[in-house]
Structures are given as structure tokens and as C-alpha cells.
Amino acid sequence: MAVARENLAILEEQLRGKKKKRFFGGDSIGLVDTAGAGLFAHWLGVLEEVAGVRVLSDEEHPALRRWANEYLADEAVKECLPDRDQLVAHFSANRDKCISIAKSMLPPN
């Protein structure tokens, strides 16, 4: 978990460094945004909702949260993403199974 936090801090700094950027490449969506946003902007929000946890907080990751919201607001992006409500319904229906699988991978106490 510590490595994930460090990596999120690096991404946060890239967006809010000396030259505040709307997207990772500047003012328009680029390859890095497209590659990262599928996970962070859309899927992570769905999984956070289903699991009832917050990975990217407004306090700790304001630039990443803003970036995700701006990416998801883009009309071209909206046309390409799966329906959020359907994703929430799917993962909610399979939540217990996913938790069981994750627990089975943990080392024994």
C-alpha cells in the first residue's frame, strides 16, 4: 500500500507542480490521460462506491480528483466509456464473491 501511495503522490505532483496542468500533457487529453483515466477516472470511482472506501481523497489528491472529473466530462470520452450505473450494478451483485476471492489470496494469520 505504501508503494501505491508514493505513486499516487508522484501523479498528483505532475498535475499540480510548478506548471499546473489540466491534463498530463497540458491543456488537452493525451496518451497518458487516456491510459490512466480508464482506471482512475471511471473504474476506480465505481469500485470506491461499491466497496464504500475512498482511495483518492479530495484532501490528499485534489489535482487527481479534478483531472478525473475533467476527463470524464469530455464529450468524446463519455461516448467511449461503459455505462457507470451498469458497472455499479454488476460489481454490487458480485461484491461478496470478489471479497471472498481477495480474502483467499491473503496469507494465513
TrEMBL record:
All copies of domain GST C-terminal, residue ranges: 1-91
InterPro entries for this protein: Glutathione-S-Trfase_C-like, Glutathione-S-Trfase_C_sf, GST_C, GST_C_Tau, Omega/Tau-like
Record-linked CDD domains: GST_C_Tau
Record GO biological process: glutathione metabolic process
Signal peptide (from-to): none
GO annotations of cellular component type: cytoplasm
SUPFAM superfamilies: GST C-terminal domain-like (SSF47616)
Recorded GO MF terms: glutathione transferase activity
Protein name: GST C-terminal domain-containing protein
